[in-house]
Hints:
Layout: H1 26-34, H2 40-46, H3 48-52, H4 59-66, H5 73-80, H6 89-92, E1 113-116, H7 128-136, E2 141-142, H8 161-168, E3 174-177, H9 181-185, H10 208-230, E4 235-240, H11 255-271, H12 273-276, E5 282-287, H13 289-292, H14 308-324
Parallel strand pairs: 1-2, 1-3, 3-4, 4-5
Helix pairs in contact: 2-5, 4-5, 7-14, 10-11
Amino acid sequence: MKLSSRLGGAFCVLASALPACSASGDxxxxxxxxxxxxxxxxxxxxxxxxxxxxxxxxxxxxxxxTGAGGSxxxxxTTGxxxTTGxxxMSGTGGTGGTSSVTPHxxxxxxxxxxxxxxxxxxxxxxxxxxxxxxxxxxxxxNYAIGGYSMGSGGLGLIPTxxxxxxxxxxxxxxxxxxxxxxxxxxxxxxxxxQGGNCKNDLNSPNISDCQKIVQxxxxxxxxxxxxxxAAGVTDVIYFFYPHVPEGTAxxxxxxxxxxxYALPRVKAACDSAESVSxxxxxxxxxxxxxxxxxxPDWFVVGDIHPNTLxxxxxxxxxxxxxxxxxxxxxxxxxxxxAP
Length: 339
Protein backbone atom coordinates (compact mmCIF):
# COMPACT_ATOMS: atom_id res chain seq x y z
CA MET A 1 0.00 0.00 0.00
CA LYS A 2 1.15 3.38 -0.45
CA LEU A 3 1.39 6.16 1.96
CA SER A 4 2.90 9.49 1.68
CA SER A 5 3.68 12.19 4.01
CA ARG A 6 2.20 15.45 4.12
CA LEU A 7 4.99 17.67 4.70
CA GLY A 8 4.70 19.88 7.59
CA GLY A 9 6.95 21.01 10.22
CA ALA A 10 10.28 20.41 11.47
CA PHE A 11 7.92 20.25 14.19
CA CYS A 12 7.74 17.13 12.41
CA VAL A 13 4.31 17.99 11.48
CA LEU A 14 4.80 17.69 8.65
CA ALA A 15 2.93 12.44 11.38
CA SER A 16 -17.70 -16.98 4.19
CA ALA A 17 -18.22 -16.35 1.81
CA LEU A 18 -18.87 -19.97 1.23
CA PRO A 19 -17.59 -19.45 -2.27
CA ALA A 20 -20.88 -18.39 -3.65
CA CYS A 21 -21.91 -21.59 -2.07
CA SER A 22 -20.75 -23.12 -5.26
CA ALA A 23 -22.25 -26.06 -3.49
CA SER A 24 -23.03 -27.30 -6.89
CA GLY A 25 -26.26 -28.55 -5.58
CA ASP A 26 -25.36 -30.39 -2.43
CA UNK A 27 -27.99 -28.86 -0.15
CA UNK A 28 -30.68 -28.73 -2.75
CA UNK A 29 -30.21 -31.89 -4.75
CA UNK A 30 -31.10 -33.75 -1.60
CA UNK A 31 -34.54 -32.10 -1.38
CA UNK A 32 -34.97 -32.63 -5.11
CA UNK A 33 -34.34 -36.31 -4.84
CA UNK A 34 -36.81 -36.32 -2.05
CA UNK A 35 -39.42 -35.45 -4.58
CA UNK A 36 -39.41 -39.02 -5.79
CA UNK A 37 -41.10 -39.89 -2.54
CA UNK A 38 -44.38 -38.63 -3.93
CA UNK A 39 -46.39 -40.53 -6.47
CA UNK A 40 -44.96 -40.49 -9.92
CA UNK A 41 -46.01 -37.04 -10.96
CA UNK A 42 -44.88 -35.58 -7.75
CA UNK A 43 -41.43 -36.76 -8.54
CA UNK A 44 -41.19 -34.53 -11.54
CA UNK A 45 -42.31 -31.66 -9.40
CA UNK A 46 -39.62 -32.43 -6.92
CA UNK A 47 -37.13 -32.31 -9.71
CA UNK A 48 -37.61 -28.61 -9.42
CA UNK A 49 -35.55 -28.95 -6.31
CA UNK A 50 -32.62 -29.83 -8.50
CA UNK A 51 -32.81 -26.39 -9.97
CA UNK A 52 -32.48 -25.13 -6.46
CA UNK A 53 -29.19 -26.91 -6.21
CA UNK A 54 -27.67 -23.96 -7.93
CA UNK A 55 -27.78 -22.10 -4.67
CA UNK A 56 -27.76 -18.75 -6.37
CA UNK A 57 -30.78 -19.70 -8.49
CA UNK A 58 -32.62 -20.71 -5.41
CA UNK A 59 -35.76 -18.99 -6.71
CA UNK A 60 -36.27 -21.76 -9.25
CA UNK A 61 -37.04 -24.49 -6.74
CA UNK A 62 -40.24 -22.74 -5.72
CA UNK A 63 -41.49 -23.04 -9.30
CA UNK A 64 -41.21 -26.74 -8.94
CA UNK A 65 -43.58 -26.54 -6.05
CA THR A 66 -46.35 -25.12 -8.20
CA GLY A 67 -46.19 -27.65 -10.94
CA ALA A 68 -47.50 -30.89 -9.56
CA GLY A 69 -49.71 -31.18 -12.55
CA GLY A 70 -52.44 -30.51 -10.10
CA SER A 71 -51.65 -33.68 -8.26
CA UNK A 72 -53.16 -33.58 -4.82
CA UNK A 73 -50.82 -33.01 -2.01
CA UNK A 74 -48.70 -35.78 -3.45
CA UNK A 75 -45.72 -34.07 -4.92
CA UNK A 76 -46.83 -30.55 -4.49
CA THR A 77 -45.78 -30.28 -0.95
CA THR A 78 -42.66 -32.20 -1.73
CA GLY A 79 -41.93 -29.69 -4.45
CA UNK A 80 -42.21 -26.87 -2.04
CA UNK A 81 -39.50 -28.57 -0.16
CA UNK A 82 -37.37 -27.39 -3.03
CA THR A 83 -37.58 -23.95 -1.52
CA THR A 84 -34.92 -25.25 0.79
CA GLY A 85 -32.74 -24.41 -2.16
CA UNK A 86 -33.24 -20.77 -1.37
CA UNK A 87 -31.24 -21.45 1.72
CA UNK A 88 -28.31 -21.65 -0.62
CA MET A 89 -28.71 -17.92 -1.11
CA SER A 90 -27.18 -17.38 2.28
CA GLY A 91 -24.04 -18.86 0.87
CA THR A 92 -23.68 -15.93 -1.48
CA GLY A 93 -23.63 -13.57 1.46
CA GLY A 94 -19.94 -14.01 1.97
CA THR A 95 -18.90 -12.30 -1.24
CA GLY A 96 -15.97 -9.98 -1.01
CA GLY A 97 -14.19 -11.69 1.81
CA THR A 98 -10.84 -12.25 0.17
CA SER A 99 -8.97 -10.22 2.79
CA SER A 100 -6.81 -12.19 5.20
CA VAL A 101 -7.29 -9.48 7.82
CA THR A 102 -9.64 -10.44 10.65
CA PRO A 103 -12.61 -8.07 10.34
CA HIS A 104 -12.60 -5.56 13.19
CA UNK A 105 -10.46 -7.66 15.49
CA UNK A 106 -10.40 -6.46 19.08
CA UNK A 107 -7.13 -5.60 20.77
CA UNK A 108 -6.55 -7.45 24.01
CA UNK A 109 -4.26 -4.84 25.52
CA UNK A 110 -3.39 -1.22 24.86
CA UNK A 111 0.23 -2.05 24.12
CA UNK A 112 -0.88 -3.67 20.85
CA UNK A 113 -1.35 -0.11 19.56
CA UNK A 114 1.79 1.95 18.94
CA UNK A 115 2.52 5.50 17.81
CA UNK A 116 5.19 6.23 15.19
CA UNK A 117 6.12 9.46 13.49
CA UNK A 118 7.55 12.90 14.15
CA UNK A 119 6.99 15.94 16.35
CA UNK A 120 3.30 16.13 15.57
CA UNK A 121 3.11 13.11 17.83
CA UNK A 122 6.05 13.70 20.17
CA UNK A 123 7.16 17.26 20.97
CA UNK A 124 7.69 19.54 23.95
CA UNK A 125 4.91 21.90 22.90
CA UNK A 126 2.11 19.40 23.42
CA UNK A 127 1.07 16.09 25.02
CA UNK A 128 -0.53 14.12 22.18
CA UNK A 129 0.43 10.58 23.37
CA UNK A 130 -0.97 11.25 26.85
CA UNK A 131 -4.05 12.94 25.38
CA UNK A 132 -4.77 9.94 23.13
CA UNK A 133 -4.44 7.62 26.12
CA UNK A 134 -6.88 9.81 28.02
CA UNK A 135 -9.60 9.92 25.37
CA UNK A 136 -9.23 6.21 24.54
CA UNK A 137 -9.04 4.99 28.13
CA UNK A 138 -6.11 2.80 27.10
CA UNK A 139 -2.33 2.99 27.30
CA UNK A 140 -0.70 3.01 23.87
CA UNK A 141 3.05 2.81 23.27
CA ASN A 142 4.83 5.83 21.80
CA TYR A 143 7.92 5.52 19.59
CA ALA A 144 7.63 8.76 17.60
CA ILE A 145 10.67 11.06 17.61
CA GLY A 146 10.56 14.78 16.90
CA GLY A 147 12.62 15.83 13.90
CA TYR A 148 12.39 12.46 12.15
CA SER A 149 11.40 12.31 8.48
CA MET A 150 9.88 9.53 6.40
CA GLY A 151 12.18 8.99 3.43
CA SER A 152 14.95 11.62 3.40
CA GLY A 153 16.32 14.55 5.35
CA GLY A 154 15.33 15.14 8.96
CA LEU A 155 17.30 14.07 12.00
CA GLY A 156 16.57 10.40 11.46
CA LEU A 157 14.05 8.20 9.65
CA ILE A 158 10.65 7.11 10.99
CA PRO A 159 10.96 3.50 9.72
CA THR A 160 13.79 2.97 12.23
CA UNK A 161 11.23 3.41 15.02
CA UNK A 162 9.59 0.12 14.01
CA UNK A 163 12.36 -2.29 15.10
CA UNK A 164 12.61 -0.42 18.40
CA UNK A 165 8.92 -1.09 19.01
CA UNK A 166 9.22 -4.73 17.99
CA UNK A 167 12.21 -5.30 20.26
CA UNK A 168 10.19 -3.98 23.19
CA UNK A 169 7.11 -6.11 22.43
CA UNK A 170 6.42 -7.66 19.02
CA UNK A 171 2.70 -8.09 19.70
CA UNK A 172 1.52 -5.11 17.63
CA UNK A 173 -1.78 -4.87 15.74
CA UNK A 174 -2.36 -1.16 15.12
CA UNK A 175 -0.09 1.79 14.30
CA UNK A 176 -1.04 5.46 14.62
CA UNK A 177 1.35 7.12 12.17
CA UNK A 178 2.29 10.44 10.65
CA UNK A 179 5.37 11.60 8.80
CA UNK A 180 6.90 13.37 5.81
CA UNK A 181 6.99 16.95 7.04
CA UNK A 182 10.65 17.01 7.94
CA UNK A 183 11.53 15.59 4.53
CA UNK A 184 11.00 19.15 3.25
CA UNK A 185 11.50 21.16 6.43
CA UNK A 186 14.95 19.66 6.99
CA UNK A 187 15.73 18.51 3.43
CA UNK A 188 18.63 16.46 2.22
CA UNK A 189 20.08 19.03 -0.17
CA UNK A 190 22.90 16.74 -1.24
CA UNK A 191 20.37 14.34 -2.68
CA UNK A 192 17.88 17.06 -3.62
CA UNK A 193 19.73 20.37 -4.32
CA GLN A 194 16.49 22.32 -4.72
CA GLY A 195 15.05 20.93 -1.50
CA GLY A 196 15.55 24.17 0.37
CA ASN A 197 12.90 25.82 -1.79
CA CYS A 198 10.15 23.36 -0.93
CA LYS A 199 8.94 25.14 2.22
CA ASN A 200 9.53 28.67 0.94
CA ASP A 201 8.35 28.78 -2.66
CA LEU A 202 4.64 28.99 -3.57
CA ASN A 203 5.62 27.22 -6.78
CA SER A 204 7.17 24.28 -4.90
CA PRO A 205 4.67 21.73 -6.29
CA ASN A 206 6.22 22.36 -9.70
CA ILE A 207 9.83 22.08 -8.53
CA SER A 208 11.27 18.73 -9.59
CA ASP A 209 13.22 18.06 -6.39
CA CYS A 210 10.20 18.87 -4.23
CA GLN A 211 8.14 16.36 -6.18
CA LYS A 212 10.90 13.78 -5.78
CA ILE A 213 11.09 14.36 -2.02
CA VAL A 214 7.36 13.77 -1.67
CA GLN A 215 7.51 10.65 -3.82
CA UNK A 216 10.41 9.21 -1.86
CA UNK A 217 8.49 9.76 1.36
CA UNK A 218 5.49 7.94 -0.11
CA UNK A 219 7.60 5.06 -1.43
CA UNK A 220 9.27 4.69 1.96
CA UNK A 221 5.93 4.70 3.76
CA UNK A 222 4.66 2.00 1.41
CA UNK A 223 7.71 -0.12 2.13
CA UNK A 224 7.17 0.41 5.85
CA UNK A 225 3.58 -0.76 5.47
CA UNK A 226 4.76 -3.92 3.76
CA UNK A 227 7.12 -4.62 6.65
CA UNK A 228 4.55 -4.10 9.39
CA UNK A 229 1.91 -6.11 7.53
CA ALA A 230 4.31 -9.04 7.30
CA ALA A 231 4.75 -8.80 11.07
CA GLY A 232 1.02 -9.07 11.75
CA VAL A 233 -0.12 -5.43 11.95
CA THR A 234 -3.66 -5.24 10.56
CA ASP A 235 -4.45 -1.51 10.62
CA VAL A 236 -2.73 1.86 10.32
CA ILE A 237 -4.31 5.19 11.18
CA TYR A 238 -2.36 7.67 9.05
CA PHE A 239 -3.01 11.30 9.92
CA PHE A 240 -1.84 14.16 7.77
CA TYR A 241 -0.85 17.65 8.81
CA PRO A 242 -3.15 20.66 9.04
CA HIS A 243 -2.54 23.93 7.27
CA VAL A 244 0.15 25.46 9.45
CA PRO A 245 1.08 29.09 10.12
CA GLU A 246 3.25 30.53 7.35
CA GLY A 247 6.29 32.73 7.66
CA THR A 248 7.71 31.00 10.73
CA ALA A 249 11.34 30.22 11.42
CA UNK A 250 10.73 26.47 11.43
CA UNK A 251 8.04 26.18 8.77
CA UNK A 252 9.40 28.65 6.26
CA UNK A 253 7.49 31.11 4.13
CA UNK A 254 5.01 28.86 2.32
CA UNK A 255 4.99 25.29 3.72
CA UNK A 256 1.32 24.70 2.86
CA UNK A 257 1.97 24.78 -0.88
CA UNK A 258 3.93 21.54 -0.80
CA UNK A 259 1.61 20.10 1.86
CA UNK A 260 -1.38 20.59 -0.43
CA TYR A 261 0.57 18.89 -3.22
CA ALA A 262 1.41 15.94 -1.00
CA LEU A 263 -1.97 15.40 0.72
CA PRO A 264 -3.97 13.75 -2.11
CA ARG A 265 -1.00 11.58 -3.00
CA VAL A 266 -0.61 10.43 0.58
CA LYS A 267 -4.33 9.71 0.83
CA ALA A 268 -4.32 7.72 -2.41
CA ALA A 269 -1.44 5.59 -1.17
CA CYS A 270 -3.18 4.99 2.15
CA ASP A 271 -6.52 4.18 0.52
CA SER A 272 -4.89 1.56 -1.72
CA ALA A 273 -3.09 -0.19 1.13
CA GLU A 274 -5.46 -3.13 1.45
CA SER A 275 -5.36 -4.05 -2.23
CA VAL A 276 -1.62 -3.44 -2.50
CA SER A 277 -0.91 -5.59 0.56
CA UNK A 278 -3.09 -8.42 -0.68
CA UNK A 279 -5.62 -7.88 2.09
CA UNK A 280 -3.12 -8.04 4.92
CA UNK A 281 -3.25 -4.39 5.98
CA UNK A 282 -5.80 -1.58 5.99
CA UNK A 283 -4.81 2.08 6.13
CA UNK A 284 -7.30 4.66 7.38
CA UNK A 285 -6.50 8.23 6.35
CA UNK A 286 -7.24 11.24 8.55
CA UNK A 287 -6.88 14.77 7.18
CA UNK A 288 -6.22 17.27 9.98
CA UNK A 289 -7.00 20.35 7.88
CA UNK A 290 -10.73 20.38 8.73
CA UNK A 291 -9.91 19.44 12.34
CA UNK A 292 -7.75 22.53 12.82
CA UNK A 293 -9.84 24.80 10.60
CA UNK A 294 -10.98 27.84 12.58
CA UNK A 295 -8.57 27.13 15.42
CA PRO A 296 -5.51 29.35 14.99
CA ASP A 297 -5.22 29.20 18.77
CA TRP A 298 -4.31 25.51 18.51
CA PHE A 299 -0.77 26.38 17.36
CA VAL A 300 2.18 27.57 19.37
CA VAL A 301 2.60 31.28 18.64
CA GLY A 302 5.11 31.76 15.82
CA ASP A 303 5.43 28.01 15.27
CA ILE A 304 3.87 25.25 13.18
CA HIS A 305 3.53 22.83 16.08
CA PRO A 306 0.29 22.28 17.97
CA ASN A 307 -0.03 23.45 21.55
CA THR A 308 -1.95 21.61 24.27
CA LEU A 309 -5.30 22.66 22.77
CA UNK A 310 -4.27 21.42 19.33
CA UNK A 311 -2.91 18.26 20.86
CA UNK A 312 -6.22 17.39 22.51
CA UNK A 313 -8.09 18.27 19.33
CA UNK A 314 -5.87 15.88 17.38
CA UNK A 315 -6.27 13.14 19.99
CA UNK A 316 -10.05 13.39 19.86
CA UNK A 317 -10.06 13.31 16.05
CA UNK A 318 -7.73 10.30 15.92
CA UNK A 319 -9.75 8.38 18.51
CA UNK A 320 -13.02 9.18 16.73
CA UNK A 321 -11.48 7.85 13.52
CA UNK A 322 -10.38 4.69 15.30
CA UNK A 323 -13.86 4.20 16.70
CA UNK A 324 -15.55 4.83 13.35
CA UNK A 325 -13.51 2.09 11.65
CA UNK A 326 -13.45 -0.14 14.77
CA UNK A 327 -9.67 -0.13 15.09
CA UNK A 328 -7.80 -0.45 18.38
CA UNK A 329 -11.04 -1.25 20.23
CA UNK A 330 -11.31 -3.68 23.14
CA UNK A 331 -14.00 -6.30 23.69
CA UNK A 332 -15.87 -3.70 25.71
CA UNK A 333 -16.76 -2.15 22.32
CA UNK A 334 -19.34 -4.32 20.60
CA UNK A 335 -18.06 -3.44 17.11
CA UNK A 336 -15.07 -5.79 17.23
CA UNK A 337 -14.68 -9.55 17.44
CA ALA A 338 -12.22 -11.63 19.42
CA PRO A 339 -8.94 -12.10 17.52
